[in-house]
Amino acid sequence: MRKSRFTESQIVAVLKEGEAGVPVADIIRKHGISRPTYFLWRSKYGGATVKDLTRLKELEAENAKLKRMYAELALENAAIKDVLSRKL
Question: pTM score, two decimals?
Fold first, then answer.
């Protein structure tokens, strides 16, 4: 997937302009984005703050770490059960 040239904080700033009453046509022309991109951002980041997005990224990273830990433990547990079943 292609990386956006805008950071999440920049996207939130663009959306804040729209919430302030600036016409969408002016916003998309000023920032060089397409109309569908603006509305995609609005549906994805609408009402979010930079603090919320930072916290969301932290939670996603923690969730990924926990999933990896669980997968490793489950694999280890299966290996131990396999070894124990062979001994008996």
Answer: 0.65
